[in-house]
Amino acid sequence: MSIIETQDLTKIYGRGEAAVTALSHVNVSVTPGEFVAIMGPSGCGKSTLLHLMGGLDQPTSGSVAYEGMDLASLGDRRLTELRRRKMGLVFQFYNLMPVLGALENTALPLILDGVTAAQAGARATEWLARVGLGDRLGHRPSEMSGGQQQRVAIARALVAEPPLILADEPTGNLDTQASDEIAALLRRAASEWGRTIIMVTHDPRIAAHADRIIFLKDGRVADQARLDGHGQSQVATNHVRALSREAVR
User: pTM for the whole thing?
Assistant: First the structure.
């Protein structure tokens, strides 16, 4: 049983001679608790696929089903509730509120969903501690490093305890050490906290944390590969690099 599945998913931007096909008949299925990385050249449709999976955009044709529900059949209100309660979103540039501290940023999704301030604060405190920021509760984004800001963003994505986390280039704005720490944190979210992770990345070192890699090329699935539990190691990284070169050849 998949947690999220696409069938013949196609996305075309523009019309006529100006039309650009971002995705063409993409079929992807992800099982609960799986950590999947999506890789491919720039412009191959990686982020488009992730945004369609999150209901942030509508397909031209085909479908995205979350736990058997076709996202296109949901109204705006139900889709917003689904994203708030069932999906956590992590982006490259953190998207934190600059005037709020780490605790307030993390608690915000719960507050918007009607949870009391006391309950939201308690859960946000718990998740910030889990991601290693228990001593940064009052720090605003400007007072934290990029890696710390991304940890806050991950805590915010996890605070409602959604089954699925969608991460779009979560390490793309970070240095090597911070990137490795964020990738390891997402690996922990899958292995220890039971979340399903779908992550777009261009970095083989980061993708090596995943259970499976889906390679896109020209808007289509070019190949898929399992990593057999190698984890973050030079062997795994070299393996992913080799797979990536073969997939997009």
Answer: 0.91
